[in-house]
Fold each of these.
Amino acid sequence: MNLFVANWKMNMLRAGARAYAQELGRRIGDRGLDVELVVAPPLTALDAARDAGERWSMAAQNVSSEAEGAFTGEVSARQLVDAGCRYVIIGHSERRTLFGEAGPMLARKLARAREAELVPIYCVGETADEHTAGATDSVLSDQIATLRDDPPGAPLVVAYEPVWCIGTGTAATPRDAAVASTRIRELLASRQLRVLYGGSVNPANAGDLLRDGKVDGFLIGGASLDPAAFAAISRAETG
Ligand code: PGA
């Protein structure tokens, strides 16, 4: 089943999250959509963004690389599960570039997620310079190598998010998305996984990307802050 993840990043207070959940519920209706929906709000809004009818599940945007103990300011994988999360985003480019998270730390985060049975949404993608230099392939192999010790039988979501597309208003072409998602599937050939595309997805480009991008859904930032746009994107495959 295709998967659509709303990554709110560091946006929204609880009142806004409650209003969002009501509106999203109204937009998708009582029966829900024939796709899987996940909302990743800031941790402070996890409860407010939850759906009592469970038409969408919850994700965290980050997790500690440590399991428990004296790590001021961190939130553990078990605490995320306890707070109702099923998924966790790991290795988002904003974590990699703004907070210096690299392979070894991300591998530890993946391990903590597995211990707690959180499903990782592991993000990969090249920068603009790497893209222009034709280095996409080697960047993807390096970033996928971080999954080396991840248990091969466990459910996995990989999000291809070219850094030059995130928050820029310019999405990758369906062809670029298809090349990258095919490469990711080759690199993880022995595994069952869903590959998402992320980077300036909106209701206008979602249909083409889903049809021709060889992906199983999207990780959506800016557009997902509007419940109408998130619902419209999630309906993209049905037209
Ligand atoms: P965007 O963000 O949709 O605003 O480009 C995507 C992401 O960072 O996950």
Amino acid sequence: MIVAEEKDTLREKLKELFGYTTFRGNQEVVIKNILEGKNTFVIMPTGAGKSLCYQLPAMIKDGMAVVISPLIALMKNQVDQLNAYGINARFLNSTLSKSEITRLKKDCINGDVKLLYVAPESLNKEEYIEFLLKANVSFVAIDEAHCISEWGHDFRPEYRKIKTMIAQLGNMPVIALTATATPKVQIDIQKNLQMEDADIFLSSFNRKNLYYEVRPKKETKKQLIKFLKENKGKSGIIYCLSRKKVEEIAQLLNVNGFNAAPYHAGLDPDVRVRNQDNFLNEEVDIVVATIAFGMGIDKPDVRFVIHYDVPKSLEGYYQETGRAGRDGLEGICLMFYSHNDLSKLEKFNKDKPVQERENSRILLQEMEFYAESPICRRKQLLHYFGEEFKVENCGACDNCVHPRERFDGTESVKLVLQAVKETNERFGLSHLVNVIRGVDDEYVKSYGHEKLPVYGKGADEGPDFWKSVIRQTLIYQYLEKDIDSVGVLKIKEKGVKFLKKPETIELARDHDYTSEGEEEESIERAPIHSKAYDVKLFELLKAERKQIAKEKDLPPYVIFQDPSLEEMATTYPTSKEELASVNGVGMGKVQKFGKSFLELIKDYVEENEIETAADVVVKSSVNKSKIKIFIIQQVDRKVDLEEIADSKGITFEELLTEIENICYSGTKLNLDYYIDDMLDESKQEEIFEYFLNSETDSLDEALQDDDMADYSEEEIRLMRIKFLSEYAN
Ligand code: ADP
Ligand code: MG
Ligand code: ZN
């Protein structure tokens, strides 16, 4: 079984070098592809783990990998992180002195360097090409590859010359990586790099651990302070539209005892850099910023991103919220929304050329729909990026956690589809609404649409109602947008079927953010995950990390990331080997930073008389608690249970047993994302009812009960876990 062996060695390498136990998403297939020497194109959302896709092959292959990266700040950061793992990575850019460059070149040519980060502008220099020809380059990775395209949001002219440089180096495999994936940009990148043959690895854009919420912009400062009080000590970013607002909010927060700093283009460069560094080094908890902040910030433990003002586009919103929870743990994305903000943004566009103004208007309209829609936020965002999210309730957005009241929308959807059909699929939203409502307008008459059967059939509802219905039929895949003509709506196959044989469909009403005075019921966020680790020890470890980081002049997360500290606060490692087996640690980091952490844990364990793995003769208990925290983290991220079992090499049954143990020891686990996919609501209710009325939660009794005869053991066990989590804990 060569395949299995190869898989194992890759995993072993992953553990040995980076301390991680499992690959995420597409990482493993991408890495294999690169190792086979093929051109590779990786599209993964921010925070999904693109870097590892080229870092690991760079370590396995002979020679040195060249990584092209657009920002000098980002480069240093990545090199610091790799060095912390004991990997010899270096960077070449304009910040180095002549003698530093000479030394660097020598090390590269000697074969001491495994990864060399270069800025694109360096590549234009003849001397660097000559030097790279002497070094043994294994492959070229192009990070943030969308910078090549004028259609992307961050075009860099120097990126255009990359292909010429690669050609000069002789033909070698190229790997391009980006988080921005509009089809147009994709094609542009491939053309420019002449890698039309590349294997493309497109990942889902779903960020499972992010929680999305939109709140009305009322008493916003009060709401903000309340939120921050509940999340005190956590790292977060607050985005505002203007510099003035940034200053104002930063001040407000400082007056209220929070540790906040402003960041915007109007600040002195020194101050700006200092504020950013302080944020990375945990001297400052909160950065209040204009959108200029964040690009190139790889801080993995940003726990919340707040949009104090409405962003200009959903793309921007998604990029910015994407900066939360890169480490896969909690990430709350909160937006304050008002119509007023939209009007302000429209006014900004007043002086732009017509086409640009129109484009901006369409983007703002998407924003408006997103904010006001009653549909799952996740479903909407993914729909916007061309992806269908099929789960009915994501469990991690305001619209799913507090579903809006639903009504039977069958007739309304029918009218909408009829209107699209009768107008021959050639019109956009506003016109369709006018036809349905029977509006007497010149445009309608010029097409003779007042004579259509559907005309005026929906007169008893207002325009907002119909806009909302149309949006929902789009997201539920009855309609689609025409690719060729902007705004035109067409009927999809599901819509055709519906018109032939309508089935009941439930819709919800939009949020109403306009109602003056009366406050929409304030939404309390459901806690996303409960703390399964030793909070006191975790805080001590965090303080230690900060101390060490200061001494070494590195950001704390370069030392150890939060998930690793959480795991230490669960498994209490007291030997080097145990510490090395913590996810994200590895021997390299143990040697570099482990000593004081081990001492701290040992003292803590002694003081608190905690029984650790070392005390227990049966060694496997380490693995037990390790599996436990792994499962809790994976469930938090809504990873499929099969996948979790798979990556731990246990059966589904064994996994269920572990989960049951976790629940019985008092930790709540939310499995709704998995159960909702497997059992419909009425079936869930039936099993739930059984446990509510039963005198015992014994599985054997449930299996023998007549009412439960239709259900499999698996289903009953899953529902029992849900029941225990909701009632017993
Ligand atoms: P991207 O470049 O896609 O935005 P990064 O490469 O910066 O993302 O990775 C984001 C975070 O994910 C980092 O903190 C990294 O340590 C972590 N990470 C990457 N791969 C893994 C893995 N296999 N297991 C656990 N954490 C990982
Ligand atoms: Mg990256
Ligand atoms: Zn949702």
